[in-house]
From TrEMBL, chain A:
Pfam families assigned to the protein according to its UniProt record, in alphabetical order: ABC_tran
Extent of the signal sequence: none
UniProt-recorded name of the protein: Alpha-D-ribose 1-methylphosphonate 5-triphosphate synthase subunit PhnL
Organism encoding this protein: Rhodovulum iodosum
Family: Belongs to the ABC transporter superfamily.
Automatic annotation (TrEMBL), chain B:
Recorded catalytic activity of this chain's protein: alpha-D-ribose 1-methylphosphonate 5-phosphate + AH2 + S-adenosyl-L-methionine = alpha-D-ribose 1,2-cyclic phosphate 5-phosphate + methane + 5'-deoxyadenosine + L-methionine + A + H(+)
A molecular function GO annotation: lyase activity
Protein name: Alpha-D-ribose 1-methylphosphonate 5-phosphate C-P lyase
Entry similarity comment: Belongs to the PhnJ family.
UniProt xrefs under Pfam families: PhnJ
Organism: Rhodovulum iodosum
Source domain of life: Bacteria
Entry keywords, A to Z: 4Fe-4S, Iron, Iron-sulfur, Lyase, Metal-binding, S-adenosyl-L-methionine
TrEMBL record, chain C:
Domain named ABC transporter: residues: 26-271
Protein name: Phosphonate transport system ATP-binding protein
Lineage: Bacteria, Pseudomonadati, Pseudomonadota, Alphaproteobacteria, Rhodobacterales
Keyword Nucleotide-binding: yes
Any Pfam family hit: ABC_tran
Keywords: ATP-binding, Nucleotide-binding
This protein's record includes keyword ATP-binding: yes
PANTHER family the record matches: PHOSPHONATES UTILIZATION ATP-BINDING PROTEIN PHNK-RELATED
Membrane-traversing stretches: none
Amino acid sequence: MIEIDGLSKSFVLHNQGGAVIPVMEGGHLSVAAGACVALTGASGAGKSTLMRMIYGNYLAEAGHILVGGVDVARAEPREILALRRHTLGYVSQFLRVVPRVPTLDVVAEPLLAVGADDGVARDRAAALLERLNIPRTLWGLSPTTFSGGEQQRVNIARGFAYDYPALLLDEPTASLDAANREVVLDLIDEAKARGAAIVGIFHDVAARARVADREVDVTGFTPRAA
Amino acid sequence: MTKTDHYNFAYLDEQTKRMIRRALLKALAVPGYQVPFASREMPMPYGWGTGGVQVSAAVLTPEDRFKVIDQGADDTTNAVSIRKFFGRVAGVEATERTAEATVIQTRHRIPEEPLIEGQILVYQVPIPEPLRFLEPRETETRKMHALQEYGLMHVKLYEDIARHGHIATAYAYPVKVAGRYVMDPSPIPKFDNPKMEMAAIQLFGAGREQRIYAVPPYTSVVSLDFEDYPFQRMKAEKPCALCGAEDSYLDEVIVDDAGGRMFVCSDTDYCATRRDDGHVGAMGAPYEEGQA
Amino acid sequence: MSVQNASQESCRDCSERSWAAAEPLLSVRGVSKFYGARIGCADVSFDLYPGEVMGIVGESGSGKSTLLNCLAGHLAPDAGEVQFDTRAEGLKDTVTMSEPERRMLGRTDWAFVHQNPRDGLRMGVSAGGNVGERLMAVGARHYGAIRESALDWLGRVEIEADRVDDRPSAFSGGMQQRLQIARNLVTGPRLVFMDEPTGGLDVSVQARLLDLMRGLVRQMGLSAIIVTHDLAVVRLLADRLMVMKSGHVVETGLTDQVLDDPQHAYTQLLVSSVLQV
């Protein structure tokens, strides 16, 4: 489902004397449908950078990032948007939404975006919020006013609303209590069971051990002569 | 009245009349289109019919019989002044009889008696641009006419219904001429609008705004409206108090200081002619020669 | 009722279909506009596909408004083509098409939302008349139906029905802007040009407007080009971004990619200059 090879990336800081910071070289990764690969490596080794490149959020310098047959490293913006809509989901660490939109709508949006019926999308959103223990009284409010943990759970609900064939999870269990952590790990297991290819970053070792089939240390992709 | 010989026939010099006649011909060729013309200073203030007077001056011949009406009446100040003016500078014969007149200059009315081929009706126009109150830019209104973008005209009628529950525009009611140009018929009551499809030539002159436009004989003139709020010609509630006419446009006249009032034909010639023919209204005495 | 219902029905799934569309809705090639020796915008090219929202960012004087006005037919470019996918004839250059045709597009398939609602509204005409004008301009002649459409659209932009006969001069800035949007969208356009649509509004009102625009864009499957200097606005509304400096396009790409991993020196400066809240 996800095939990466020869991936490299450096940042050029034009406003800081044109400093070039190489961050990745020879990156490669292969994730089959139904498998979960955990990215490991010290902080700053490039886990998030790799994940962002897969999502098309960071520009790849060289190499290929094939997701469901689309090469994200070369695709047009609209192809990447279609990919994000239909194929590739991303649960980031931060919730970014339009202020004032009710939580239920925030969670239902990915389903509405692929043309799901309004009622079906809302039912699915409600079920996920219920499972993630977001009190029903908050559903009509914008999540921008929620606590960090609540925002994270809304973010996860949103990421799992639509059954993406490929999923990127950046610290999905961080800042969650034990009960909610269990719910999230169950969601990941269910996604794997339905055939989703998952790439995740888990600092929580126990969580990683439970859901990941394989670990890839991104330190191996760090450019040598830095 | 004695004719003044110090002026050219009908006051304007021949070159000016030629210029105006050219504008008139163009206006007749493109019904409803506003033709710019070089309006002259006339010996009367703007707003007193300088546009109509210049058009009349350009079409009058010494053989014409000239009638002037203001709000339908031959004897109001504006009508009397213009009639006197042409009596002095052109010496044309004046008449109050609609049927006898060859050129009729009017302010705010169309005579009740249907006009016939060979007659010319000259309108005095204060503001020729029907879109003006909604779109102040002349460049834009010209473009709207050129491209037939007339949606705005209906916005005005929409506003009327929204505010009053019906199309409250009672005069200067916009019309579409020959299926093409939207035109301001001058401030005639909308009662008169249906009469504009007539056998006579209709010429419109706006002196201050320097525009001439025209409706040739037998040209379609359609009052704008909505499907669910069709154009309605206001119907007088009662007949004329003097001549009993039920088909004419009536003026309200206060007859005493106790609130007494009567409704009479605004077209004085029409009323007089009917009374002459023996028609008598509720408050009318039988007609006597010289009484009107 | 009929007009907007039809557009709503037919567009329920058009955001879906549009992504598969092979033909661009708008295809811009080499558009340049000069003010004497000064460059307004130079050699701008891009394709906009149905359902896409593109943001144009840059500081004041970068040429983004000049470009928008060239695209929307308000300014004649000195060079270049602006091909629009017309309903009747497919792709057609709006620069060389006749003025009546271009103006017809301006009140049917195109919409233009001005920064200052006073430029886009008739201040002396009621809210209902403002919304109804475009319908009447394309031939609607049934008062009841026009009024019903106007009321429906006021509802969609969250203006109370009892304000339908009030003039926009009695509205707040945010309401005026929402009214302007309703007036523009009532004929079911396919392409909306927006010039700093949230400029001049306070932050809470901006958020409401952004939310509203996002919803309408998705429901109607609209394509839009939004000119703004506010990066937060494009992050929330735009799929793609075009960064302009001194009349030239210096960077294009997916909105979040351009904002999070800017490549050009100017974009890096622009992004790093935003005050964090």
